[in-house]
């Protein structure tokens, strides 16, 4: 069908004038952060404290395979990463250790999540033994070093045990013990 010049259809097909579009958010709404575990933890922790939501931090140890201490079972790692990616921001922070930040997850919610995660891994990979240590804000105001120290204590305890293991650093118990003294 021929299109008559000057017709409505011809006008619709004409190029439109270029308009200026700001393709980014105003500076007040954006913040670039360095994509490292320490920086992400600092930013997420700051946001959780300012906004009053829960946050958990976990350290996950993946066992080595064979005599090489750096060798891990890639299918275990892939399954772990697939499941962690749904609810957390995670980083490889040491050889065979993954650190995860779970925004909006309190202690009990994290405990249930990690227990289900370990059970799934155990069913699919019974010959290995992933270990998880975690902690949560519990409404406290903490620096990133303090919450990492708690998660480190938990993973250290978990690695002392055999098999799949989950240890949570429960700061409520610490507070209860201090009140009893």
Describe this structure in words.
There is one protein chain. The chain has 181 residues and is an alpha+beta fold. The chain has a single domain (33-180), classed as 2-Layer Sandwich (Alpha-Beta Plaits). The chain contains six helices and five strands, in the order ααβαββαβαβα. The chain has helices at 8-13, 37-51, 74-87, 107-124, 144-159, 171-180, and strands at residues 55-61, 89-94, 97-103, 131-136, 165-169. The protein has a five-stranded mixed sheet, sandwiched between helices. β2 (89-94) and β3 (97-103) form a beta hairpin. The chain starts with 7 loop residues before the first helix and ends with a helix.
Structural class: alpha+beta
Radius of gyration (Å): 24 Å
Compute the number of helices. 6
CATH superfamily: Reverse transcriptase/Diguanylate cyclase domain
Q: Report the CATH C-level class.
A: Alpha Beta
Q: How much helicity do the residues have?
A: 40-55%
End-to-end separation in angstroms reads: 92 Å
Q: Total strand count, please?
A: 5
CATH names the topology as Alpha-Beta Plaits
Give the CA-based shape: elongated
Per CATH, the architecture is 2-Layer Sandwich
Uncertain runs are 177-181
Average pLDDT taken over every residue: 89
**Total number of distinct structural domains:** 1
């Amino acid at each position: 069908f021929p299109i008559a010049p000057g017709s409505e259809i011809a006008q619709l097909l004409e190029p439109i004038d270029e308009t200026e579009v700001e393709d980014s958010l105003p500076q007040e709404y954006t913040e670039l952060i360095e994509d490292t575990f320490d920086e992400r933890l600092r930013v997420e922790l700051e946001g959780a404290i300012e906004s009053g939501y829960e946050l958990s931090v976990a350290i996950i140890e993946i066992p080595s395979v064979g005599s090489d201490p750096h060798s891990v079972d890639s299918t275990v790692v892939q399954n772990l990463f697939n499941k962690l990616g749904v609810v957390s921001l995670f980083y490889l922070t040491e050889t065979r250790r993954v650190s995860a930040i779970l925004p909006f997850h309190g202690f009990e919610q994290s405990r249930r999540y990690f227990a289900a995660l370990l059970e799934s891994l155990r069913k699919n990979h019974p010959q290995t033994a992933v270990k998880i240590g975690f902690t949560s804000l519990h409404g406290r105001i903490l620096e990133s070093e303090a919450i990492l120290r708690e998660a480190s204590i938990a993973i250290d305890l978990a690695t002392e045990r055999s098999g799949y293991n989950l240890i949570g650093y429960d700061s409520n118990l610490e507070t209860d013990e201090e009140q009893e003294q």
